[in-house]
Hints:
- By secondary structure, this protein is mainly α.
- It is built from eight helices and six strands, in the order ααααββββββαααα.
- It has helices at about 1-5, 10-15, 45-60, 65-70, 145-150, 165-170, 175, 195-205, and strands spanning about 80, 85, 100, 100-105, 115, 125.
- The strands form three sheets. The chain has a two-stranded antiparallel sheet. A two-stranded antiparallel sheet has the order 3-4.
- α3 packs antiparallel against α8 (about 195-205).
- The protein is globular, with a radius of gyration of 18 Å.
- The termini are far apart.
Amino acid sequence: MKIKLLFSGVLAHCLIVGAGIALAPASVAQNPNALQPAETFQSISDERTRSIALFEEAGKVIQHPRCVNCHPATDRPLQDMTMHPHQPPVFRGDGGMGLVGMQCNTCHSAENTPVVGQADTLKSIPGNPAWHLAPIEMAWEGKTLRQICEQLKDPKRNGDKTMAEMVEHMAHDDLVGWGWDPGEGREPVPGTQEEFGKIIQAWVDTGAVCPAS
């Protein structure tokens, strides 16, 4: 019975999965599509201060709703600039892939899917071959930048990654890279994945110091 209910109306609801994020949060509103290059932070002579500044710059991406939406604090993904609960209702399931009968690939295909003739705010449905939620241990929702920073350095809460593996993940992972190519109707996260990866690498190289808050 539960499985039937999960299937009920799913085709009618798939289109609203793509309702995306139109605006950037206040922290990046003044220049939403830019990241300062890692090289610009070389002018900060104190290495600890430089490391903190680098991570705060990376925070423009990390704390963007487009990223936080897939790092929720509960078993339900988030959507939109308001980060409201995913519609239709879906839940984490095994491996973050959703419950039986309502898995992520029910609506999310291997690539972004353009949508025609829908609301002005709905231009495409997000897509990626690996579309899924981050593990609950990697939840970012409701956390300060310092808390996220500490989490990224903790193998128990970062997917058992070394710092070198964390840099590789940030700089080259294809699903992370979706944030810069989110489909029509959605503003990408700031900068480029290459720039972001260089900032994360520079942060690690300067001691991976976390901000105070």
